[in-house]
Amino acid sequence: MAHLLVVDDEPSISELLEISFRKEGHKVEVVSNGQAAKRRLAAQIFDIVISDICMPDMNGVELLQYSKEVSPSTIFILITGVPTVDTAIDAVNFGADRYVVKGDRLLDELRPAVKRIAENQALRKEAGELRRQLRRFTGFDHIIGASPKMRDLFDLIETIAPQSSRVLITGESGTGKELVARAIHENSSRAKAPFITINCGAFPETLLESELFGYLRGSFTGANENRRGLFQAADGGTLFMDEIGNMSLTMQVKLYRVLQEGKVRPLGSTEESDVDVRVIAATNKDFAKEIAEGRFREDLYYRLSVIPIHLPALRERREDIPLLARSFLDRYSKSMNKKIEAIEPEAMRRLEVYDWPGNVRELENTIERAVALEASPRISAEALPARIRDHYQEAVSQHSGNGNGHGDGSILPVEGIDLEVYIQKLERSFLLAAMERSGGVRTRAAETLKMSYRSFRHYAKKYGI
After folding, report:
1. Of 6, 62, 171, 265, most Cβ neighbours within 10 A?
2. Alpha-carbon distance 229 to 260, whole Å?
3. Are 205 and 243 in contact (CB under 8 A)?
């Protein structure tokens, strides 16, 4: 049901609407003038406003305009006892959903309109909630993860996307910086404008300048025609500048000026042009070190990092590895037209233990390779690269006391170990392995681990499984 605000200085009309819509299950608030309505709109979000046009302190069209400013999602219905062509035109121009004349048929016209609006808004709310729930598991635009760090990332993207502030994304290579930049763009008001990408580390200084700012014919050898730069191509949209840390100091000065003034001047030109571009930059470098050693300008860093985002390495969110691996398995099984349905538990354990220096990109390449080589319906441990298999064997050997099953001081790292954290990781890995082996059936997984179902449920909740 909808939350309605009725605005009318005629008590008989207000009472009629309040009683009728309350009977239908709607939540209804009533005020008698425009100023009171403005205060309610500023303090509360309403689904629908039903307002008289002619009121002593302000007319309904003015209230409609105010509502669109403070609460654009609120649907507005104007009613009047004195219809005129001008007020009808204003109602349409300023975005009223309906224009209804008071009289014997007032409720007959309002009831179906309110019902339709309430149903549409309920569907929109449900769709929004489904999108939010989906993002908890699949994220934005192929950014996959359900770990706490990734859920925090999805919330941050959703928060900052509508803004125009510049963003600096840091993280190791292969963590998905471009995917995050694209998700920010596609969930912003700039989504219908261009999303342009450039790898700043792939161009020498002179070529990078012409790529970013453009050039006029004859400005240098080979410039046979006028060409717009990427800033102009991205006007109204987003420019994603990857590997910004590889930009020369000279180019950094020129970029800083563009960001400060919002103007670009093509090579060979004396004229500047305004550009409206949201810049999202990314780097895998340590900017504190780069600035301290004089390789990156501190003033440019602060211009770029209005909103900083750090992407976690895959080894910092191991609980996402099965989710990512299965997603890549589905993708490459379809693209290669192979009926590979699952990853064997032994293979999955090796994937979870490996440290992934190449992060998500390395995991994707590993699964693609495994799908290409696997002849059976399930990815086996033998289909994984030797480096992953060897790493697993080394880890097992260390954990089991060099293979003798007893353990001794030689397996304890020199720097010591956080035993509680180690045991928690071990417990979680066994629970995941049991779930994989049982096909996701918890009772069977509990039997495999020789524990009661109640205990298994407790540990599963504890480790977010």
Report:
1. 6
2. 18
3. no
pLDDT at residue 346, as a whole number: 87
Average pLDDT over the chain reads: 86
Helix residue spans in 339-402 (DSSP H)? 345-353, 359-373, 386-399
The amino acid sitting at 350 is R
Provide the whole-model pTM: 0.60
- Residue 398 pLDDT grade (very low, low, confident, very high; cuts 50, 70, 90): low
The DSSP-derived string for 106-144 is HHHHHHHHHHHHHHHHHHHHHHHHHHHHHHHHH-STT--
Alpha carbon distances (Å) from 156 to 23, 124, 224: 41, 22, 45
Residue 397's identity, in one-letter code, is: S
Residues in the chain: 465
Strand residue runs (E) in 390-461: none
3-state helix, strand, coil in the chain (%, to 5): 55, 15, 35
Domains of the chain: 3-127 (3.40.50.2300), 145-312 (3.40.50.300), 316-412 (1.10.8.60), 413-465 (1.10.10.60)
- 47 CB-side CA count, 13 A: 20
Which DSSP helix (H) or strand (E) runs through 76? strand 75-80
- Relative orientation angle of helices 249-261 and 205-213, to the nearest 10 degrees: 10
**End-to-end Cα spacing for the chain:** 36
Whole-number Å distance between alpha carbons of 125 and 68:
19
pLDDT tops 90 at residue 359: yes
Write out 156-213 in H/E/C secondary structure.
HHHHHCCCCCCEEEECCCCCCHHHHHHHHHHCCCCCCCCEEEEEHHHCCHHHHHHHHH
Looking at residue 143, what is its pLDDT? 85
